[in-house]
Amino acid sequence: MPEFSVRGVIGDKEVTITTGKLAGQANGAVTVRLGDTEVLVTATANNRMREGIDFFPLTVDVEERMYAAGKIPGSFFRREGRATEKAILTCRLIDRPLRPSFKKGFRCETQVVSTILSVDNVNAYDIISLNGASAALSVSSIPFEGPLGAVRLSLKDGEWTVLPTYEELEGAVFELTVAGGRNDAGEIDIIMVEAGSTEDGVRLINDGQPSSDEATVARGIEEAKAYIGQFIDLQKELAAQIDIPEVEWPLVVDYTDEIAARVEEIARDKYASVVTIAGKQERNAAQDEATEAILAELGIEDEDELAQAKKAARSVIKQMMRERVVSEGIRLDGRSATDIRELKVDVGVVPRTHGSGLFQRGETQVLNLATLGMLKMEQMLDTLSIEESKRYMHHYNFPPFSTGEAGFMRGPKRREIGHGALAEKAVLPVVPTAEEFPYALRLVSEVLASNGSSSMASVCSSSLSMMDAGVPIIAPVAGIAMGLIAHDEGFVTLTDILGAEDALGDMDFKVAGTAEIITALQLDTKISGLPSEVLAGALDQAKEARLTILQAMKDVIDGPREELNAWAPRIEAIQIPKDKIGEIIGPKGKNIRELEEVTGATIEIDEDGAYGIVRIGTNDSDSLALAKEKVMQIAFPPEPEVGETYDGEVVNITSFGAFVNILPGRDGLIHISKLDSERRVERVEDYVTLGDKIKVNVREIDRAGKVNLDLAVALEPKEGAGERPAGGDRDRGRRDGGGRDRGRRDGGGGGGRDRGSRDRDRGGRDRDRDRNRDRGNDRGGSRDQGGDKPGRRVVSFEDQFESGLDD
User: Fold this and answer.
1) pLDDT-based confidence at 722, cuts 50/70/90?
2) What is the Cα–Cα distance from 218 to 208, expressed in whole angstroms?
3) What is the three-class DSSP state of 492?
4) 697: how many CB neighbours lie within 10 A of its CB?
5) Residues 793, 800: Cα–Cα separation, whole Å
6) Which pLDDT value is given to residue 805?
7) CA 484/CA 525 separation, integer angstroms
């Protein structure tokens, strides 16, 4: 097959769609390129149906390849494993508009695969993958009633930008993804909307940017239609260049007109009382009983006709439920179109957790648990995304018992990942920044009972659990699920839909937000020609419901608790000079390990520009205070003061004195002559040993910062004082007379002054200390030439102290 390409400019971005070059065995295959981001999308369908299948088996897969970003996978096996969360969310984004767009009755197994070939870290791959899926189906013989177009818009300074780059998303307050198709009248029908506030959206709006309110979002959806039309035109242009083979695909008829008529004649009477039962379990049981009675009365024995009769019966009760809402304004559970089910709100329901919130709306009940941790507990991401980590995580669990069923529990499915991501998107904009609140946050929504919109209940319970934990969120967020029924005379919008109403309606959309703005929106429609004013009205109706829920939450907890939960770790961040990071860590982490062992706190260090950030975390306030004190002493060591008394520890002993640690990072010298005021001291070890605790006074701090100490409390010679170790006379001789070192210090090569002459000269030495120190530094040149060995001599810290005192 020859290669065909089309190019078009969407907004100010050029998009290229090509077919015929790659994946020739698939029914349809295209590559789509935006900038240097490129995807290969294939569409394949089996030409035979599985026997007895009663649903459309469409599978969408997104294959992220690390070579697309020039990376080798970081896993042990160095190859891609299971799909990332981003890939799964993109699968759902593609599936939702595609699934209702195939020919009615088509049940052949169909698979759409988007392989990410290249990413430029400028343009996202999800939108071109969705358009590529539609294009691959459009150039195939698969009975797809497209093409569809999809576009992303971002809201910044009140204006919508089409196909924003990652850079253009910075400073934006809202993202909007819209997919749609062209109807027979040539107009664009919206099929799907996925939208949400950016991470900094609420803060930017508070700083003065125009908000993402209902009117602004509705305007964005209308603006998206023109760009969707451009994508559809590109795909039609490509398909027009190709000779698409005609294939007879098998189609399924759910039921014949004859069976439908027979079922309806009996079913309306049987189901009349069923549609008035409010309880889910009771209504389902009554419906099953009525269906059995209908089938028995029909007397059908043929299995195929019996299956048709069951489908026809479901169609009848669905129609009866819709008619009751439209004609009588009464829903399945007796509510009117705008009523919200009974609300129950509670916090602090689970002990020992950092925060917990229970939200119940009718028969839907969700318990959310919040856990706080050090920032090192954030999720590291090894994906094609530009994000490398995620600090706020929301996980959603939907066990089978929540719907009164038994089933396998083998980890989260795509639906659970999608619902958790929607709740995460809704709440993230109000989570404080890491600078304001240096914690990683994991929220888990446990769906305990479900009958409609457990994802929006998860949003509500998330706000509750964070406020219960003491997380200073900007504002609480609530969510509501809405539905819509179309009829001959117009549309009926339903607030707080049940699970059954989701199935029988023509549109369902979920809206979450604060009292002022929308933070998340998800919409799917099943009808064409939905007027924009109907959608705008539905958004306004959703806001009224959202405000009601927020008030119910406020009645229980009106804001974040002033103190963190008792079981939550206390984390405090300290900014330190960058050059102090090494001192806190120590050689091979020695110092930081000792700090953690001594204080019981967890310590982590990050670099932030010219500074270091030390974060200390612990459940014990005393431990936090101790760890903070010790870190501050290392990073900002207190300066000793002349005349002050300190409790010190002997940390080094030399032939001329003892070094005593008096403050973190600050040592001072007690000269040997200061150890005893009444007698001559021959050996420092006769009075002190390493580790001794002694009281000292700061006598002097010279211009170089060296600290000279005196004893605050006199010391007695230790037992055995005066006994000289082997070689001790030789060492003492160097200091007192004939040693090589002494000669160098005194400027000569031979003898030195004795101890008595040194004591007699001490008064003059004190007066001329600064001058003598300079002379001592100058003599460094003569010392370089006056020893046994030529070359430069490195003078130790101890030698400098001795030189400053003895010269």
Assistant:
1) low
2) 21
3) strand
4) 18
5) 12
6) 45
7) 9
Higher pLDDT, 609 or 111: 111
Report which residue type is found at 570: R
pLDDT confidence tier of residue 694, bands split at 50, 70 and 90? very high
Residues in contact with 310: Cβ distance below 8 Å, sequence separation at least 6, in sequence order: 291, 295
How many whole angstroms separate alpha carbon 357 and alpha carbon 650? Answer: 56
End-to-end CA distance of the chain: 96
**DSSP output for 458-481:** HHHHHHHHHHHHT---SS--EEEE
Parallel, antiparallel or unpaired: strands 602-608 and 570-577: unpaired
Q: Where are the alpha helices (DSSP H) in 374-508?
A: 414-427, 454-469, 499-504
- By CB neighbour count within 10 A (0-12 exposed, 13-18 middle, 19+ buried), where does 54 fall? exposed
Tell me the pLDDT tens digit for each residue of 213-246.
Answer: 888 999 999 999 999 999 999 999 999 999 998 8
Q: What is the DSSP string of 668-710?
A: EEEEGGGS-SSS--S-GGGT--TT-EEEEEEEEE-TT--EEEE
Tell me the C-alpha to C-alpha distance, in Å, between residue 588 and each of 273, 575, 604, 777. 76, 22, 15, 35
Contact between residue 341 and residue 555 where contact means Cβ atoms under 8 Å apart? no
Cα Rg, the chain, nearest whole Å = 39
Two structure tokens written together for 472: 């200073």
Phi first, then psi, for residue 300 (nearest 5°) are -85, 130
Strand duo 666-671 + 37-45: pairing: unpaired
- CA separation for the pair 80, 63 (Å, rounded): 9
**pLDDT score, position 725:** 53
Measure the CA dihedral 782/783/785/786, to 10°: 110
Instruction: Output the CA–CA distances (angstroms, integers) from residue 188 to 234, 275, 522, in the order listed.
Output: 15, 35, 18
What are the pLDDT digits (tens) for 330-386?
Answer: 888 889 999 999 999 999 999 999 999 999 999 999 999 999 998 888 888 777 877
Evaluate the omega torsion of the peptide bond into residue 147 and state whether it is cis, within 30 degrees of 0: yes
**Each residue's pLDDT tens digit, 383-399:** 787 787 889 999 999 99
Comparing CA positions, the residue from 40, 46, 43 lying closest to residue 63 is 40
Region for residue 697 given its phi and psi (left: phi exceeds 0; alpha: psi -120 to 50; beta: otherwise): beta
